[in-house]
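Still learning. Show one?

>
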Amino acid sequence: MAQVPSVPFQTPTNLFRFGEQSIWSTAFLNSGTVASTSTRIFATANGQVGQGFAVALSIAETNLKEGGKTPAGVAYDVFGVASEIVAASAGTDSAAPLTTLSVPANTNALVTDSLNIQHNAVLSWDFTQTIIDICPVTLAGAGGGLFGALATTQNNVAVGHMSNGNGNIWMYRKHPVALPGNSAFGILIRFGSRAAALSTGVSLRVTLLGFYKNIIEIG
């Protein structure tokens, strides 16, 4: 029978809290040329304007409370990276009328935009002075391939939806990426020179899956 651990005589001054949490950030890619461009995400906090958005980012676009770095006192280990491509209701982000991010990819142009991003965009860690490539977007998906169903009505109206699951998410199988507390970081969305122009505005949301540890001061 195992011994009951002894009770310490002194009150601890801090405790550690462990858990799993995802962190996400979104870029708005305007319609038009994207070849040889680079967009930095995880740089803009919730409630602020940036990353291609003309209107402040909401919780659907990011859950960062402070852009560009991990919170002080919290260490975060990233074991997975996922991405999601969604067409916008306009070529650029605007407040009046508000540009929405919920357009089904049910036309050839919108499906082509998704494939264009999957095959020509690359995700890279940006640690201020060091850039480390992660993978092409096609390997950092949301679970599944470019799939769905499309049909044309008798009035020649396209119905249905094609989504960019992109296959499995990118996993760090052995060595998670460590983000110490208060450390600066970001992710770059970089396009190759052969990327085609986008037919409309597109959002690309990147989600980091990981473990966190923070210190709770109690004395």
Remarks:
- The chain has a mean pLDDT of 84.
- The first strand starts at residue 14 and ends at 29.
- The longest helix spans residues 108-120.
- The helical segments are 108-120.
